[in-house]
Amino acid sequence: MMPVRRSQNWLPSIFNDFFDSDWVERTNVTAPAINVIETANHFKVEVAAPGMTKDDFNVRLDEDENLVISMEKKTENKEEKKDGRYLRREFSYAKFQQTMILPDNVDKEKITAKVENGVLNIELPKLSEQETKKAQKLIEIH
């Protein structure tokens, strides 16, 4: 008779079965996907944001005129049984911030943003070539 070695790997599988189930939701620790598209007239930034609304986002220009996209979502689900033996609360919190340096030819006065179908769309219109040249200052050397 040949001896058989039994591995003791049932314990990790119990934890994996429990934590990878619908009972315990795994938090998403990755940043949302961001696409940047350039056309002749504008840049477009797309941020994947399923389940988010416009109230969850803040899009602004910082003091250095960089584009700052931030998102914060808090949820609380509460279930109670009347007899007092069962109480469950689930908290969820997600926060994200991304700062992007804008090209010089972006018209910072006409930037717009909207949320549609789980995607934050930010339109960054380009200045015309004349407006870009006018915005650049030539400093004379005396």
Q: How would you sum up this structure, described in words?
A:
By secondary structure, this protein is mostly beta strands. It is 12% helix and 40% strand. The chain has helices at residues 10-19, 129-135; strands spanning 34-38, 42-48, 57-61, 67-80, 87-100, 112-116, 119-125. The strands form two sheets. The chain has a four-stranded antiparallel β-sheet with strand order 1-2-7-6, with no helix packed on it. A hairpin with a 3-residue loop joins strand 1 and strand 2. It starts with 9 loop residues before the first helix and ends in a 7-residue tail after the last helix.
Condensed summary:
Helix content is 12%, strand content 40%. By secondary structure, the protein is mainly beta.
User: What structural class should be given to the helix and strand makeup?
Assistant: mainly beta
* Overall strand count: 7
Estimated share of beta-strand residues: 35-45%
Distance between the termini: 99 Å
**What best-fitting shape do the alpha-carbon axes yield?**
elongated
What's the number of helices? 2
Describe the largest sheet.
4 strands, antiparallel
Strand order of the largest sheet: 1-2-7-6
Query: How much is the radius of gyration in Å?
Result: 25 Å
Poorly predicted regions are none
Oligomer: single chain
SSE arrangement, N to C = HEEEEEEEH
Overall pLDDT level: 76
Helicity, as a percent range: 10-25%
